[in-house]
UniProtKB/TrEMBL annotation:
SUPFAM superfamilies: Resolvase-like (SSF53041). InterPro entries: Resolv_N (IPR006119), Resolvase-like_N_sf (IPR036162). It comes from Geomicrobium sediminis. This is DNA invertase Pin-like site-specific DNA recombinase. Residues 2-130 form the Resolvase/invertase-type recombinase catalytic domain.
Length: 130
């Protein structure tokens, strides 16, 4: 089964554009969160409960799936662990092709971002002690 997931965002507040692109891609079912700014992940959690191995989840762009790199990494790890294909149309990501490469790259970028934040924090503390 191919599922499309829609989370409205500022340039597509009602999810209309995402729905059009997912329908054009050929998803079987579209799951959509509420209006832009609502902040709920209820539909995503419901989708995760019904996914089966070899299912596919398609989003228009990564930020429609997760609001942070940590959440994105968590979702991609879940998909990988459960043999679920993930596709992001705008980002040209398809885990069927080089899935572990994408996952490892995102892990490294998340670690990099953490290291940069940590170093900036340490530098700020050091400067404030002077």
């Amino acid at each position: 089964m191919i599922y499309g997931y829609v989370r409205p965002y500022s340039r597509d507040e009602e999810g209309w554009l995402q729905n059009q692109l997912l329908e054009k891609y050929g998803v079987n079912t579209i799951v959509q969160e509420g209006d832009f700014g609502e902040g709920s992940d209820k539909e995503l959690h419901d989708l995760l409960e019904q996914l089966q191995p070899k299912d596919t989840v398609v989003v228009v762009k990564l930020s429609c799936l997760a609001a942070s790199s940590e959440l994105l990494l968590e979702m991609l790890t879940y998909f990988d662990d459960n043999n679920i294909r993930f596709i992001s149309l705008f980002d040209e990501i398809d885990t069927l092709r080089l899935g572990s490469v994408y996952l490892n790259a995102i892990k490294r970028m998340d670690e990099f971002a953490f290291d940069v934040r940590s170093e900036r924090t340490r530098l700020g503390i050091k400067r404030n002690k002077k």
